[in-house]
Write a structure and sequence with these properties.
Layout: E1 21-29, E2 32-41, E3 44-53, E4 57-67, E5 71-77, E6 86-91, H1 94-97, E7 107-111, H2 116-136
Antiparallel strand pairs: 1-2, 1-7, 2-3, 3-4, 5-6, 6-7
């Protein structure tokens, strides 16, 4: 009796790559000039940027990942005739904010006029993603004091005795 070779079935599962929108930006932080790319996706924002001291001395390229859970809000500011538009990002964590070029508690990404429409659309999409993420979170816990009613006001000290 011949035992044939076992057949090996190979199954290729589709890999879903998260799509993202890349927006080039400039920023300033003290005496440093920053050039970079912001990548917006349904998972959050990734900022890749290079900071140059006085526009000459590079500190190298950095990458900072900001998940949806850490975003407080993301705003698109129009500017005038598509010039001077910017994206303002505020975070829930000050620790994460220190990794970014920031000013007055927010990261301000100055945009190029050619990227106006794609930047506006990316901010709109991330706003929807943030709303969906926040809606999927469990409700916040009630404060502990709300668990007790006012009957505690009538509680007697341990040393007191009941008179009958």
């Amino acid at each position: 009796m011949f035992i044939g070779a076992h057949s090996l079935q190979v199954v290729f599962l589709p890999i879903f790559m998260q799509s993202f929108t890349s927006i080039p930006f400039k920023a300033e932080s003290g005496v440093s000039q920053i050039n970079g790319v912001a990548k917006f996706s349904s998972a959050g924002i990734v900022l890749e940027f290079e900071s140059k001291l006085f526009g000459l001395i590079s500190n190298g390229v950095k990458e900072v990942r900001i998940p949806l859970a850490e975003l407080l809000d993301v705003k698109f500011k129009k500017g005038v005739l598509k010039r001077g538009s910017k994206i303002e990002i505020r975070l829930k964590s000050f620790t994460k904010l220190t990794e970014l070029p920031n000013k007055e508690g927010k990261a301000v990404l100055k945009l190029f006029a050619a990227d106006f429409d794609s930047a506006r659309d990316a901010v709109e999409r991330i706003g929807k993603d943030m709303a969906e993420h926040n809606a999927s979170l469990p409700p916040p816990h009630p404060p502990v004091r709300s668990l007790f009613d006012e009957s505690e006001d009538e509680t007697k000290e341990l040393g007191e005795k009941h008179e009958r």
